[in-house]
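During the reporting period, our protein records have gained a structure token line. One record among many is quoted in full directly below:
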Amino acid sequence: MKIYNIGTATRLLAMKRPDVFVCLDSKNKPALCGAFGIKQSSLTYESYWEDIILQVYKAEWWLNPKPQNNREKQVSNSRAAFLDSLYYEK
């Protein structure tokens, strides 16, 4: 079994596909896990997809139609990665 650093792995995923992935690190993990009802200790690299990403896909703001305006499309295309800034705590 491989052990991955979830912060590094999810940062790389979010850089490559900000439309799908959100970075998960020590600065946003407590708030993000709280918002999604996940125990921080149970969240792993292997459970990240089901615990975070699939819940994002079920959210009402995710299911809304994509905007037509080019500027809004750019923001919408990075909305998963945007969660990092919403839940980031200093």
The chain has one domain: 6-87.
